């Protein structure tokens, strides 16, 4: 541990002041007074040492100590009723343009066309399975000609 017993007692005695300052949004004056009191009681040693990665010194060390103490018995998070359950309803997603069109016009425009087209599609599949030549409608012919897929011919 980086603190002595006396320093630890000093910091623990100021936990409630820290939580009050955090609640009142007055942390800046709290840090200033904490630093002045620390220097008066323990000297400048903590502030003169060089910080290294993973081992901060000075005010950074003190701030880190207070921020790490959030889940102790003095914090509101660990008190009974301190945490509330957040119920987040799933956000409604926007439809893609094709989904919106389908939702609006399926019964009136898409379903009647699909009834006839799907029957023809099924018949073409049966013919392809038998090895018979299949006649493509004009739009499918254009797609077939522009396709780079030479293995299937589609």
Short overview:
The protein has 154 residues and is mainly alpha-helical.
Explained architecture:
By secondary structure, the protein is an all-alpha fold. Helix content is 60%, strand content 0%. The chain folds into 2 domains: 5-71, no CATH class; 104-146, no CATH class. It contains 7 helices and no strands.
Estimate the strand proportion.
under 5%
Count of separate structural domains: 2
Poorly predicted regions: none
Multimeric state: single chain
What does the main sheet amount to? none
Order of helices and strands: HHHHHHH
Mean pLDDT: 77
Number of helices: 7
Distance N terminus to C terminus? 73 Å
**What would the principal axes of the Cα set say about the shape?**
rod-shaped
**From the helix content, strand content and strand pairing, which structural class follows?**
mainly alpha
Q: From the alpha carbons, calculate the radius of gyration and give it in angstroms.
A: 36 Å
Total number of strands: 0
The helix content is 55-70%
């Amino acid at each position: 541990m980086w603190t002595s017993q006396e320093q630890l007692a000093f910091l623990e005695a100021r936990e409630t002041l820290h939580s009050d300052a955090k609640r009142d949004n007055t942390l800046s004056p709290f840090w200033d007074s904490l630093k002045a009191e620390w220097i008066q009681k323990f000297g400048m040693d903590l502030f003169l040492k060089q910080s290294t990665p993973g081992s901060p010194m000075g005010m950074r060390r003190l701030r880190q100590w207070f921020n790490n103490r959030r889940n102790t018995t003095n914090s509101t998070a660990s008190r009974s009723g301190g945490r509330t359950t957040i119920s987040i309803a799933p956000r409604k997603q926007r439809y893609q343009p094709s989904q919106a069109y389908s939702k609006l016009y399926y019964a009136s425009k898409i379903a009647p066309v699909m009834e006839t087209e799907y029957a023809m599609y099924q018949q073409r599949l049966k013919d392809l399975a038998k090895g018979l030549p299949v006649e493509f409608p004009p739009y499918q012919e254009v797609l077939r000609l522009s396709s780079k897929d030479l293995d299937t011919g589609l």
